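Hey, can you fold this one?
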Amino acid sequence: MSLDALLARSPWAAALTPAQRERVRAELRERAVPQGAYVIRKGDRADSWLGVADGLVKVHCASPSGKRATLTGVPAGGWLGEGSLIKREALRYDVVALRDSRIACMPGATFRWLQETSLPFNRYLLDQLNERLGLFIATVEHERLHGIEGRVARALATLFNPVLCPGLGPALHLTQEEVGLLAGMSRQRANAALKVLEGEGLLAVEHGAVHVLDLEALRRY
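Sure. Predicted structure:
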């Protein structure tokens, strides 16, 4: 997507006045991030709200010993980083590009100006933060109570959240390695879980793509 297309797909932008949209578009900048590179790193100062114009990124954290935990994935059309901007704190997680990606960057000053001037934007942020809270509660539940199939099902279903990832179609262009990275496991374990979910009629797997056949069942898995 172009930056104009990303804004057209973003519900919060549709709720702005023409003057507000014009300023946002004028101040929006784009970064190209190659596969495997950091979009932002833990400890960096939060100075931009980030939108994924093209590609796929994952949000994860790591312990001093090197153990990593994947928190969520964000496909094209999603935005992230609002919490750290609102709290004006250093980032508590890493964001890594799982494939070559283009990232839209809204300056923190523009983000805070929208907070001060747009009631619809603030309502959107409230919904966004509420969805993230539900997402991370579900993440803890799946990590503690469910097996690898449940973790893969959650990782895939998360990408269809209409607030966090608007406009995504039923076909996910993901490799099995990317599914594993999103679910926090090896490609081999992700492949085994995908076969189980496919056998239960929830999805269909082909080379480079996962077709979701029953989204509600995937969410409940």
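The mean pLDDT is 87. Let me know if you want another pass with a different chain boundary.
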